[in-house]
């Protein structure tokens, strides 16, 4: 967010800034979704819904899981949320007590850590690397659990910031290891639909105890609509529902109507994904040409996590200079990994293809001077 603010300031001064810092789709919501929302607005009948969400949206989600994953989901286990962010709050509040330890990857999405701390929970950040394709393993969990009991494990696949994915076999092993130890497994599946090298799999296939959190923000291009969902174990449904009623009452009805319509525009969304796939190829070729020789596997999402130690030991300074000198905005790694993030940065390739291409041209010319 700080990088975006600095980039916006440069733009206000007349610079053409190429935005590769923020993790949101560069494409608008499909027309069919927008029209569904316009019709709902015209009706003038928007209000509270059930805390678990509108039946039309829950039914669409049941159909989605059956068609996309071949998994049956009971209506009673679905909770519609105000984005995945609300899902994490609800999951943490329902499953854990203050002082409980929850394992995360480092690098990883910083909001996980921040929300856990705000709720009096203890984030246990476990360094991952190329030997495990930047993913947690049962061995990681065994070691951390032996040091002090873990109450939860949180995994994203595809991951932010790396874009790497767990294979279905690796995910299965990790889910089953957590269930065997009585550890809640929370699966952040917000980037599902955006996979390029490995087919994504839901943790729900491997355990009915898994807590699934997802959102319409990424694949469905609906970040500003703030709408997501959870699939919960039966024993957490009522606690989550009660907490949601107290904190949010319900997710916005307008957003729920639009989200239900989003399941009807798969062809449009796949065309958006094809743009990301083209951008990904341009980015990876451009990074190599610019001399970046440490890039995590970009299996999914729309990020590349890149080592900068060849050029700098301070990615914050490196990103600042890149923005000031060539007007390319990217995200330094410190937020994603407090211990080692100074050696890394994240590029988002969710923007227009021509911007990605131009950014790589500028970057190649700039790094030639290092």
Characterize the structure shown.
The chain has 370 residues and is α/β, with parallel strands linked by helices. Helices cover 43% and strands 14% of the residues. The protein contains twelve helices and twelve strands. The chain has helices at 2-12, 31-43, 55-69, 83-95, 110-118, 138-147, 168-180, 234-247, 253-262, 266-289, 315-326, 353-367, and strands spanning 18-19, 78-81, 101-106, 122-127, 152-156, 184-188, 211-215, 228-231, 303-307, 328-329, 331-332, 344-348. The strands form three sheets. It has a seven-stranded mixed sheet with strand order 2-8-7-6-5-3-4, sandwiched between helices. The protein has a three-stranded antiparallel sheet with strand order 9-12-11, with helices on one face. A two-stranded parallel sheet has the order 1-10. Helix 7 (168-180) links the parallel strand 5 (152-156) and strand 6. Helix 3 (55-69) runs parallel beside helix 9 (253-262), helix 4 (83-95) crosses helix 8 (234-247) and helix 10 (266-289) runs parallel beside helix 12. It is globular, with a radius of gyration of 21 Å. The model has no long low-confidence stretch (mean pLDDT 96).
